[in-house]
Sequence to fold (217 residues):
Amino acid sequence: MAQVIKSPRKSSTVAHATVSLTIEKHYGTGRDENMLDPRGFGLVCTAGAIIVGLIVAGCSSGVAGSAASNPADLLAYRRDASATSQAVTSSKKRAAQAKAIDENCSQFPTTSGVGVAKYNEFVDAHDANAADYLPKRDLAAATLTEAATKVESGVDAAGDRLPTDLTAKLREYVAAARDLAAETRRMTYTASVDPLNIASRRVNDARNAVRETCPAR
Fold:
């Protein structure tokens, strides 16, 4: 169940933030192929000489001209190589973006939720005129500030790997949490709770916006 800030019992109402984040031997000749045949040796040598002469004669002439590539084939090759390179680059970018989104969205509920919990404890102390009102007020402000710093560090580390809309929503939370921390520090029993309530609603809205933008878990 989502943790909700309780309505204060004092006449000055303090809004609670909501945790909603919630891979060779020849055969058939009739003779031993390993023995020389003296009757045919001269013919073989003569024929061999003729054959060699033909080979030499054939090698003495060359084909005029020079090798050249087909422009159309070369262009097609370049296009294929470029498309492959682009596909690999695009795949790497998608993987990097998915990793950045996961890193930031997975830690956000816990990081921001701690700030909400400490803020709620401060409100309870405010409503009850508790003796530990001031320590809880200061702890709430410090926790909200720490949460904002952690979220901001994650966004800065991810850089342009994060989608721009998610970056904007995370940065809005950072600003809202710092604003609520400042208002909390200024809070006293006799101070107006209106600025605190406005700042608290801003944190709620910012947290919900991040939750709605992050992938469902």
